[in-house]
Design the sequence.
DNA sequence: CATGAATGAGCGTTCATTCAT
DNA sequence: AATGAATGAACGCTCATTCAT
């Protein structure tokens, strides 16, 4: 993705999304941001009057929307919920590899440590709810009742979050690809007691 | 837990574990650390010659050991794996509430953004492996074969990590208490302790 | 005084006069000025090509003219020089209270610290000379000879300047009301109007 | 006065006193201060934890004490109150010339525009009260009763403040030397009506 | 073993100004 | 005549670290 042609504001948002995700809110300086975005110092406050915090919200919004697109694309052509979930996890694994095997959840990295903590957490909650709702919708589309759809959507969300954490520590995307196997709950399977 | 009586080094470690977990590695300044630990200005580099990075490793070590203790205590008196997992999740929920409903994984918060990134991630991996191995051991003790024990241990780990993230965004420990229900994939099967 | 209906340029001048007087030339940013004046961003350099410095001169001019009007009004209906001086001091005390008990000499606050220091000081001198001349004229009108009129005019000027300083520190207008007593050096003498 | 041999903290205080007096609190940047004091950037916050505001208070304190010394020295060898007041005004005129003919009241310039405005004004009031009290003491020593001593002390204070303002605008110390003439209140003098 | 004074690079932010429209 | 987007220098301040004692 060549960002050089984008307007300054968008270059700032993408630079922020990228850097915050890897180094966390406090781990990224404005100078890092500005040089990554090839933007002059003064323009940050022109586009984001409240500075770094505003930019973090914008970056989180952009990253959250990207995630919604990945979810939608994964389930769009799926024939079962498991299919969609598997595609999603594999897509995320591929993205994890592409971005250097060191990125966690873009929302958490960006918003969990910010200064306007209360507002940041609230906004993270909204993003997460959006993701879960999107998965929920697809689960419903496959015929699951509301309770089961909700349960599965949250389960998948939690596994992905946990997967990001573990993949990051292991510097390996394999854990993300192994998530679907944990999601499959086949009531017909029995495990023999020891 | 009254930390006032502890030696300076331990007070520093606990202060670091507490603050890093909430605000992340870069979100905590040495002044914050020193004043939280009620430690004199110069003592940090006396006890931790490499400074903040050393302290972060020590804090992660301490936090990881605490987690191992919580895991051990949860499974010690359990009659089934599900029992132990449930106890663990409830204990973590309680701790989450006690520490202000804003703390995520103590290892990830402390080590994922550090400067010596490579070494930090490696160390995080070791901590995580230790947690999973501890759960694995208990699963084996309850008669699960190695593959199933590994699968369940990792599943629980991932759910807890995801649970911490979601609980943090929602500022609610409820999600942690709901994790065991997602873990039980074969409700009809009971597993006898070994 | 409702300034909303005034043209932008006048709103800028009054906003500048108000803010410079309280916070000093360097203590007021263009943003403060623009928002106090409810003026659009670009309009400052339209009306004042040399920017802040031009505006400061305009504000000082306006404030100086206001002071001349207050002096004139105070002496206009006076029957003696002391009468006029007393009225003036009481009017200034009232204005001091109305504007928040924190304002000093509008000229000094605006011009003494500016960047084009030489020109600013020269202009301040002209303003001050104007005030003293105005008082001198009234003193002459009451029959004082040139030397005595000059002496009294300067004495009153100095007391008012000192009074503004002390009133500001004490946040009290009382000192301004006490000035006439210091001016009266020959209580037994009455001076007939010319 | 060679300040090079003084400790860093004192060099900072003197640099601040000098620069604030000429350019005002907001007109002086930390870089100006630091280079005038030949001090490294980090040491300012070592000596003055609250930064510029702390330094301003320290500078005002030092300047106020200097003024008290000048007052004391002026009255110490005086034979009458008028003598002392005259010596004081002449000393101040000399200092005015020595420091570039552009300095006003060191307290007002430093404290009237600061950010911690309330505290700054309060402190300025205390300084001014100290000066007035010092003059009052000398007046009493010359046999004036409390009311007259207070009246004369405040009168002299106001004239000096006004004198500083006018001297600054005129870039001339003459006005300071003319103050004693205004202070002389000879009840026996009568002015003939016109 | 333990301390706190000292430091300069870098922080996030605001500044007065320019200029194309 | 009137505007607001854009800018880089400077702002006051905090940082992790060093070192003499």
Sequence:
């Amino acid at each position: 993705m060549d960002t050089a042609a984008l307007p300054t504001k968008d270059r700032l948002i993408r630079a922020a999304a990228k850097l915050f995700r890897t180094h966390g809110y406090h781990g990224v300086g404005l100078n890092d941001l500005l040089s990554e975005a090839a933007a002059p110092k003064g323009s940050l406050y022109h586009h984001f009057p409240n500075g770094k915090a505003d930019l973090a919200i914008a970056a989180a919004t952009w990253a959250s929307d990207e995630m919604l697109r990945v979810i939608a694309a994964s389930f769009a052509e799926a024939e079962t919920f498991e299919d969609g979930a598997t595609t999603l996890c594999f897509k995320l694994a591929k993205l994890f590899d592409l971005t250097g095997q060191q990125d966690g959840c873009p929302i958490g990295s960006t918003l969990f440590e910010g200064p306007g903590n209360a507002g940041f957490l609230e906004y993270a909650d909204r993003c997460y709810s959006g993701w879960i709702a999107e998965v929920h919708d697809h689960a419903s589309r496959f015929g699951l009742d509301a309770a089961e759809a909700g349960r599965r959507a949250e389960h998948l969300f939690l596994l992905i979050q946990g997967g990001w954490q573990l993949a990051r520590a292991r510097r390996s995307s394999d854990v993300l690809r192994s998530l679907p196997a944990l999601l499959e709950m086949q009531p017909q399977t029995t495990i023999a007691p020891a």
Residues 29-31, 42, 44-45, 51-52 of chain B lie near DNA strand F (CB under 10 Å from a C1'). The domain at 8-183 of chain B is CATH 1.10.357.10 (Tetracycline Repressor; domain 2).
